[in-house]
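sanity check this record:
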Amino acid sequence: MELKISSRFQDGVAVVTVGGEIDLYTAPQLRNELVGSLEGGTRRLFVDMSRTEFCDSTGISVLLSAMKRARDKDGDLELVAPRPAVMKVLEITGLHEVFTIHPDLDALPVAAGTGNTK
């Protein structure tokens, strides 16, 4: 399955929407997007996973690595609306305690519908 990624930026915050499956083959695409956002000056990343059908260990590793990079720059990476299959992986691995998880975009402390789209 194809991975679709779109990003919106505003005031050092990025909302990265991920659709499809994150796996061994598509994880590099997500890594490039997240690292590019951080290198471009974004300090806080919200990863909207409401359209993510599946995420394997490679995808989880990408998210953890990006979170570490963000925190090294006094920022953070937070997950938004993970679907049940993704949430199950987070719960089984205990990572639901590591990531900040928001129920939906409306719960974010940033206007998710505004800003520049990439």
Remarks:
- Residues 4-104 form a domain with the Transcription Regulator spoIIAA fold (CATH 3.30.750.24).
- The two ends are 22 Å apart (CA to CA).
- The first helix runs from residue 27 to 39.
